[in-house]
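pasting input
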Amino acid sequence: MFEAKLQQGVIFKKIVDAIKDLVKSVNIDASTSGLSMQAMDSAHVALVSLKLNENGFKDYRCDRPITLGLSIENLSKILKCAGNDDTITLQTDEEEPSSLKFFFENQQASKISEFSLNLMSLDSESLGIPDTDYSSVIQMSSAEFSRICKELSSISETVEIETSKESVKFSVQGDIGAGSITVKNNQSDKDVDRVDLQIDQPVKLTFALRYLNMFNKAVSLSSTVSLNMSEENPLMVEYKIDDLGSLRFYLAPKISD
Amino acid sequence: RDIQKDLQSFFQNI
């Protein structure tokens, strides 16, 4: 028996919206500790990793670990039927489920929707992601980071991110010209302006902006985003989801030949 | 020219 009830169902809708351009089908692994999901894009350049802790759910029960293979496109169609204020419950009684039940309830419990989504059997191609002690970590407004990526992607497909003790510089070079945006440490009490840099070692890494723009669809999940980098390592972009868990994106760097 | 790496160059398949 597996049942997970999320009080703020809108969070689940936002998570699916944030990943639907990146991955087509995912395995959600349910266990006693909560839900986890890891999936790569078709080019194996980017990876999304979701962890939702059981104690972030209104009700959570998972008698034994199960894997739920879902088509993101079909999941989106079902979630469209859930209101932003609804609770969302996922449920199945089977051990090897062939479908997953969804219940959407409005606040007054006066409207209850029930859907059953057919499950897929997907081969799990998961990667072992080592716990990395990143040498450069940037905490900043997710809206601001999203804006920087959008603006710079009109000049080039590729952005170079260079960190130093007191600032992070986003540089682009394209056919029309070049540009850079430098953001300094800023302990402002206004969320949108605050920038925390923890730079043990400066890094200079290059990434494809089209993936960063896809990751930034998660901006509605958290007002802050963290960029975690070490030389010769994929970038890890993390959106923490209050009281529930986190949505992480990994992006392999580009190297100049 | 920048060459896009893939994640398998950094993370092991498990």
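fyi DSSP finds no helices and two strands in chain B.
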